[in-house]
Amino acid sequence: MTLLYDLTATQPSPESRFHGGGAYGEVLFFKLLEYLKDFRLVCYYDSKNYINPDILERIKTHGIKLYDITEKSITQIIEEEKIDRLYSAMLNLNQNIPLGTIEVYTTVHGLRTLEMPFDPIMLEYASSFKEKLKYRLFMGVAKNYYLKKLHTINGRLVTDERINVITISNHSAASIKSFYPETARRNIPVFASPTFDQLDNYNPVAESKKLSIDELHKEKLCEKKYFLITSAARWAKNALRAVRALDELFENGFAQDFKAVITGVTNKSIFTKELKHADRFVFLGYVERDFLDLLTEQAYAFIYPSLNEGFGYPPIDSMKYGVPVAASGSTSIPEVCGDAALYFDPYSVSEIKNRLVQLLEQQIYDELVYKAKLRYEIVAKKQKEDLKKLAEYVIR
What we know:
Blueprint: E1 2-6, H1 20-32, E2 40-45, H2 53-62, E3 65-68, H3 74-81, E4 85-88, E5 103-108, H4 112-115, H5 122-125, H6 129-139, H7 143-158, E6 163-167, H8 170-179, H9 214-218, E7 226-229, H10 239-251, E8 259-262, H11 269-272, E9 281-283, H12 289-298, E10 301-304, H13 314-319, E11 325-328, H14 333-337, E12 341-344, H15 349-359, H16 362-395
Parallel strand pairs: 1-2, 1-4, 2-3, 4-5, 5-6, 7-8, 7-10, 8-9, 10-11, 11-12
């Protein structure tokens, strides 16, 4: 069997250089290398975009054919290489994939655009008057038209019987069947979304270094004396409401020697224009993986206010280090975090603040440290088992 693997799904999206679906595609690619004796692998990518250099190194090492879709169409690749099956971690139907001529497998990570198409908070993230007007139209007079269009776009992927759909959580599987009842009888396998921790033989070309505490001190941070929020550039991650809750916490005299670290910030003014305690916040843009690991490990607690997730890696990344988590109780997050997080209504600033106050209670905090470590082991074990099942499902 010859498998064509879509590496464009691992490359930057319009929203961010690194994204959950891309990381998923990278991990599965490296896992599939363990099975090369069982199938033939051909890949394609876009040479105009960044790609993980580790992928290119493995392709060279294993003699895998790699095509550039800016030079050759997917149809041409399929014909030349006599492809039997195509897999994409995020299938892009605009790539004109010839459905029906080969087997097509893809992972649908969630239906965020249907579950959470808009929220008033998105207006705060608008970068221009034109964008703000567009958002107002989406939430107002054009709402029904927009929702119908989104339903049609998503439906092209999940209802087409020529596409074998995989998903990453029970929430996402049920969401597909809820929005598209015609899929109720379809077999949609669920495999927990994996991370690089589940790969046994992955050695990056550039080994990530363990950073010292001195790197924290350069940002005027002390270990276990800050709350951490990540991915702040996207409105659906809901960082703004959590920042407001933290500012209220500081205003009320709690956590007097604490700070708050917010990463992924592309427009600082979104967060700072109404802050009373701006000096207690550290706003960072994109941070490298090794520094993010250090920030995660040394945080007092991780705050995850996301409005919508298909799986949700970051809380588990924190639990790996025994860092307590306060998280949104929406979508897949409770399924992943189990009883190891303090949940809140992500739309309620006061409830987010309530959970922050609870985190400052030593007994509650210590219990969450204990639960976090247990939960990480449970989830990591399932991720590892499911990664093996996923790889075998894709090639057999």
